[in-house]
Amino acid sequence: MPAILFGSISTVADTSELQRDAFNRAFADHGLDWHWDRDTYVAMLNSNGGADRVAEYARSRGVDVDADAIHRTKSETFRRLLRASPPKPRLGVPESVSAARRDGTAVALVTTTSPENVAALVEALTPQLGDQPFDLLVDRGQVSEPKPDGAAYRFALDKLGVRAEDAVAIEDNVGGVQAAREAGVAVVAFPNENTSGHDFGPAAERVDRIEYGPLRAHLGENS
C-alpha cells in the first residue's frame, strides 16, 4: 500500500504567519518587549523547534527566560487564533486527500508538533477535509526525537505497514526534508509563504500546489 505523508501543519494549511503572531502575543503575555518581524522569523525557520528558537533568541539578547513556558503560551494562543479564524486548506490538498483515499493510498500527518496543535488543525479543517482525513496522526508525544531526526517518519512507516520506497513526503521546511530523507522517503517540497526562499536541495521536486497523480509518480525515489 502506498502512502502520502504530509510533514507539517503548514503543508495542509499555511499557518506560518498565524504562528508568528502567536509568538509575538506570547512574548507580550510574558512581559517581553520582543517582536519578531517577518524577516526575523523567516531566518529562524531553517531550524525546527519553537522552544529552541525562543531559547536561542533569548541567548542572543543576553536574557534569561523560561523558553518552554513561553512556547506553551504561544501554542495555547495559536490554538485560540486557529479556532477564531479557521484557515483554508492549501491548494490541491482537499482534492489530493480525497483522490488518495479513493485509490486506497494511506494519508498521514507526520509532525513533531504538540498533539493539541495537531488536533486543533484537524478540527479547524473538518468542513473542508471531512471528519477523518488522515489514516494516522503523528505528533511529538509519539517519538523520542523531533525533526530533523527521521524518527517521526520511521514511526509512521511502521504504524502504516508501508515501506519507505512506497511513500512520498510533503514538506515545507528544510528540517522536515532532512527528516524524511533520513528515513529513506522521497520528498516533494511545498514551501509555505515564509519558507519560499529556502533551499530544498534534497527534495525530488518543488511545487506550489499538491496534485495526487504527480505525487504517486515519486514513489520509489528513495535512493
Could you characterize what this model shows?
There is one protein chain. The model has no long low-confidence stretch (mean pLDDT 94). The longest helix is centred in the middle third of the chain and has 18 residues. The protein folds into 2 domains: 142 residues, HAD superfamily/HAD-like (Rossmann fold, 3-Layer(aba) Sandwich); 69 residues, Orthogonal Bundle (DNA polymerase, domain 1), CATH 1.10.150.240. The chain contains 11 helices and 6 strands. Helix 4 crosses helix 5. It is α/β, with parallel strands linked by helices and 223 residues long.
Question: How would you describe this structure in keywords?
Answer:
single chain, 223 residues, alpha/beta, Rossmann fold, DNA polymerase, domain 1, 2 domains, six-stranded parallel sheet, 11 helices, 6 strands, PGP-like_dom2, hydrolase activity, CbbY-like, HAD-SF_hydro_IA
